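New here. Your pick:
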Amino acid sequence: MNTCIKNGARSSKPGLLGVLLICLASEEASPALQAKDIRVPSGFIATIQQGVDVAKPGDTVIVLPGTYSGVYVGPDKSGLKILAAGAPGAVRIVAGSATGFLILGADNVRIQGFDISGVTDGITASAPRVSIVGNRIGNVGHAITLASWFVPCVDAEVSGNAIYGTVTGAIEVGGVRAHVHDNVMPDTTVVTGAGISLRPPSSECEVDHNILN
C-alpha cells in the first residue's frame, strides 16, 4: 500500500490531488513520451549514423555543417527527422558509402536539407510516408528512389530537391500515392536515364510543378 507523510503523520491515502500529481510526474519523466533533439556532432556522437543509432522514434537529429558519410535508417526509427543545419550545402554526404540515405521500413521519416554527392545512389526509401525535402543531390547513380521491395512505399513526399551534375536517373517512383513536386534540375545537369520515372507498383501518384530536363 502506498503511503505519504503530511505534517509528520503517516497516511495510507495520498488523496486525489496527490495521485494526479504523481501520475503527471511519471508521465513527464517517461523518456518514451518525450521526443528530443540530438545534435551531430556532440559529446560522443561524431557521425550522423551514431546520432540515428541512439535516437528513439519521433526524435530529431540535427546535423551541423560538415562532411559526413552515408546513413542507414532501420524499421525501429519511425517518426525520425534528420535535418541539416546551416546554409544550403553546408552539410554534405560524400563518398564512403553505397547510398547517402537508405531508409528501410521506418514509418514517417523526414530527410531535409542535405547536399549528397559522389555516392552510388542519393536517397533510397522503401518505407511508408517518407518525406525527402529540400536536398541537393548530384554526381550519383539514382538521385532519389522510392521502392517497395522491403515494405510498400505509400504516401511519400518528394519536394524542393535540386538534382545537379551527372546522374543515371533523377527521381524513380515505385510506390503508391507519392507526391513529387517542385523539384528542379539546372540546365547543366546530365541525366543518362530518365528524369522522373514511374515504375511498378506505382499508382495514384501526383507529379507536378517539377522543372527537369
Q: What stands out?
A: The first strand starts at residue 4 and ends at 6. The helical segments are 16-29, 48-54. The chain has a mean pLDDT of 87. The CA atoms of residues 43 and 115 lie 24 Å apart.
